[in-house]
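thread: overnight batch results

M.L. [08:02]
morning all. the overnight job finished for the chain we discussed friday. pasting input first so we're all looking at the same thing
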Amino acid sequence: MNALELIRGFRWPMLLALVIVSPWAMAANGHVVDVSLWIAGEPYEVDTPVSLTDGEGALEVPNSHRLTFELEPVEDASAPAGSVWLTVGVSRWNDSEQSWEHVTESLLGGPMGRSQKLSLSQPGADATPEDAEVYLITTVHPKGQ
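M.L. [08:03]
and the structure it wrote out:
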């Protein structure tokens, strides 16, 4: 078997692998997260969407909270087309230790372009923007849309 026959033999499996892997791999840097955020009942203005580099990004509210984002495709044939998982990590600033304390991590999922909500509330409190410690609405988009 010469090199040309070897390449021809692997051509279709390689093309199939590229078709399956490439759209997500190429788009890993091509997403943004639009964010609406309330901290302790007060709206926090987020001027620009959070850009995801290698599928990850962060938003920091100085001396208050830090939100981390990690994007993955949903690999379930029964999920709507274009669905994504967005893992959101929430940390709180600890003034005495001058560091971030991890509070929780949550997995939000749904079709790209559709809003997902997360709230961090005390037991018995309403999960509303006015009553939650953290109230977050996220929408994932491909960059440029």
